[in-house]
Specification:
Elements: E1 3-5, H1 11-22, E2 26-28, H2 35-38, E3 41-42, E4 44-46, H3 51-65, H4 68-74, E5 76-79, E6 83-88, E7 92-96, E8 101-104, E9 109-112, E10 115-120, E11 128-129, E12 132-136, E13 139-143, E14 150-154, E15 159-161, E16 164-166, E17 168-178, H5 183-199, H6 208-224
Antiparallel strand pairs: 1-14, 2-4, 3-7, 4-6, 5-17, 6-17, 7-15, 8-9, 10-14, 10-17, 11-16, 12-13, 12-15
Bound molecules: nickel (II) ion (NI).
């Protein structure tokens, strides 16, 4: 399932992020890729160890942790601290699959990547190309979102970033280990949760059908979650 979540950051926050990122310490993205991925990766990444990277990453983690739609869609157990990249001058990232298992925090924490996330930080009018192209069971999808919007997609999917032929594309990207590893089961839970949320405003708090549906949601989650 691909899920788009709009306006995760406000325009003021995006400006602040872009301003901070402009004076960041950018490195060749190939340095942080595995041997196979490095040969197709042509972009730049912000060094993780700088104050700017830590501050922006922390800000995003806080926002995501309290974002109802993100939590409902991802059911996050662990989130890789958000990283930042930029593409320009024809920069692109050829077709690849993200690594299944990753370590962070100096190798102290291990994460299974269930979901990959890209948060767009550049207005789509400011650059050409740079679409995130994802191969799904329903064909190829091209994603290019407004600044502040993010897309969640299964880390198992083949994907690439098309060459940026004008301007630059700045994004944050990270991975989520979900309480529910299976994409199909997680999608069902998301649909059910969203349907319950949709019904809730029209019904009294103790509405019996709503209580039963909420029970079904939690009992499915209990069955499928690994903690
Ligand atoms: Ni990737």
């Amino acid at each position: 399932m691909l899920t788009v979540i709009e306006q995760v950051l406000t325009p003021a926050e995006i400006n602040e992020f872009r301003h901070q990122l402009q004076r960041g310490d950018w490195q060749d993205g190939a340095l942080s890729a595995g041997a196979r991925a490095a040969s197709v990766k042509h972009n730049q990444q912000l060094s993780d160890h700088t104050e700017v990277a830590r501050k922006l990453s922390h800000h995003l983690l806080q926002r995501l942790g309290s974002h109802p739609l993100f939590v409902s869609a991802a059911l996050p157990e662990r989130i890789y601290p958000p990283k930042f990249n930029r593409y320009r001058d024809g920069g692109h990232y050829g077709t690849h699959v993200d690594a299944a298992v990753m370590a962070f925090d100096e190798g102290r924490i291990t994460l299974r990547s269930d979901l990959s996330v890209t948060l767009f930080l550049t207005d789509p009018d400011d650059y050409d190309g740079g679409e995130l192209t994802i191969e799904t069971g329903f064909g190829t999808q091209q994603i290019k979102l407004a600044a502040g919007d993010l897309v969640l997609y299964p880390s198992s999917s083949l994907h690439r970033v098309e060459p940026v032929t004008r301007g630059e594309r700045v994004s944050s990207f990270f991975w989520v280990q979900s309480l529910v590893a299976d994409d199909g089961k997680r999608s069902l839970l998301f649909d059910l949760d969203q349907a319950i949320q949709g019904l809730t405003p029209d019904r009294p708090p103790q509405d019996p059908e709503l209580l039963r549906l909420t029970g079904v949601y939690h009992n499915l989650l209990r069955t499928w979650a690994s903690v």
